[in-house]
Amino acid sequence: MINKYELNARIYPIIITLLPVLIIGIYFSIDYQNIYSAIGGIGLITLLSFVFGQLGRDKGKRAEKKLWNEWGGAPTTQILRLTDDVLDIHTTKKAHKSLHEITSIGLADMSEIEASDDSEADEIYEAWCNYLRKETRDASKYKLLFQENISYGFRRNLWGIKSLGIVLVVLSLIIITTHSYLNYQLLEVPNYSLWISVILLILLLIFWLTIVTKDWIKIVAFAYAERLIEAINQ
User: Fold this and answer.
1) Are 159 and 214 in contact (CB under 8 A)?
2) Distance between CA 6 and CA 12 in Å, rounded?
3) Which of 47, 108, 159, 194 is most buried, judged by most C-beta within 10 A?
């Protein structure tokens, strides 16, 4: 059974990536309905969904490490640093005190540790965040946090398979335009199937190149981090 997170954060990115294949099918008038019925009849839909979900997750996780290195660490760790300005200093110190009292890890005042050994401080912040993640798994209680986590997973996984998405779009454009040229369809007026397919593929390419960016992921990554810290006193 596919849960909401897996569907939104793992399956949907793969579906978006495979849209060029669907557009080619529409262009060549392939009867996909019969294909879907046949696949569903032998019970492969669930298997394919699982495989695609794992592919999206693995690609996203690998991309995540690169992004965190560029950003200076995991957003959930960064937001707890006293030198970070996402949260005001009073909120950060209050979070430190609360997390120390709850977990008995680190100190209520982390200023000395952070000043003398920032890597040790980051390890403590990471341990605090790991604790918070375990304690906030109830999606019904922490709805906003859950939604931010889905948004982050969706964007991260899309970024992880961005190169594959671009390649499929470009290949699809080449296949459709080449087929049209060889069959003199470019000279037909109007050739709706050709131009609709090309326009859709170009829009999809623009989406990959201009929307699926590091900054697009960073926005929701830090939004999730903020919601996680807010969950301390819930």
Assistant:
1) yes
2) 9
3) 159
